[in-house]
Amino acid sequence: MPLLIVPANSAVESGNDNGIFGYGWITPAYQSISNIVSNLGVVATDVTGVGTARSILAGCEYGGDKGIFAYGAPSPGTYTSVSNLVSNTGVIGTDVSGVGQARTALAGCAYGDDKGIFGYGFNSPAAPPGFMSMTNLVSNTGVIGTDVTGVGTDRRYLAACEFGGDQGIFGYGYPPWAGVNMTNLVSNTGVVSTDVTGVGTARSSLAATQYGGDKGIFGFGQTPENSYTAVTNLVSNTGVVATDTSGVGTARAFLAGCSYN
Fold it and tell me: Euclidean distance between the first and final Cα of the chain, in Å?
């Protein structure tokens, strides 16, 4: 079903078997363009942007066949909580007034069959940096809830995906000191668990997506040593993260991913 999201731009499933990439940044301007992905994996040409141009936002599925983009950075050093709904035909709606803490570099995923959750992020370059762990639930009609007190390590540039058909997982990221490999499970009622000891390469600015109907995968990213990796970690249908699988493809960071078909 869902999603993934991470820095630079975002991607989410829509219409049960399609996907959509949206927003991002092209020097020197923030973007609101989108590109639909067909159920055959074909990426369409640019669609004229709708809503606030921004980068480093997040997205997730909701309602079983729709998506939502939310939060992000509309300009250097500024943060927003505005959101944009995506119909089951891939049409992005106009801005919806923001709910919750304006922030960037967060993650989102689906849970509970038809709902979503945004979590973690960052909202201040000042010292000490404004790393966060709060979450915001998304109803099955695409309404974002108010801030829920954070659980787990404050961090940004993490990733999230659904697993088990109705649960989610946040993983990895960059807290104030270095990249980590810890995870936090999300129950089918949207409750985030405490930190689970990390498995695999500690890193940030990675991506995640669901696959196989009930499993997930984290992949790529940037290590604490500032090197890029293509390593992946599978997530079982019970939320257990596996050890590293040797990377395939170009090592990189600040990417996005989503499921389709």
Answer: 9
Query: Quick one: tokens of 62?
Result: 């909701």
* Residue 216 and residue 185 in contact, taking contact as beta carbons nearer than 8 Å: no
d(CA 218, CA 215): 11
Taking the domains of the chain in order of start, what are their residue ranges? 4-235
For 20-67, the pLDDT digits (tens) are: 999 999 989 999 999 999 999 999 999 998 999 999 999 999 999 999
**Is residue 6 predicted with pLDDT exceeding 60?**
no
CA gap 153, 71 in Å, rounded: 20
CA pair distance 184, 195, nearest whole angstrom: 5
Residue 66 DSSP code: E
In whole angstroms, give the CA distance from residue 164 to residue 105: 25
Report the b/e string of 139-156 with b at 16+ CB within 10 A: eeebebbeebebbbbbbb
**Cβ(109)–Cβ(2) under 8 Å?**
yes
Whole-model pTM over 0.90:
yes
- DSSP class of residue 134 equals E
CATH 3.40.710.10 fits domain 4-235: no
Query: What are the tens digits of pLDDT across the range 128-143?
Result: 569 999 999 999 999 9
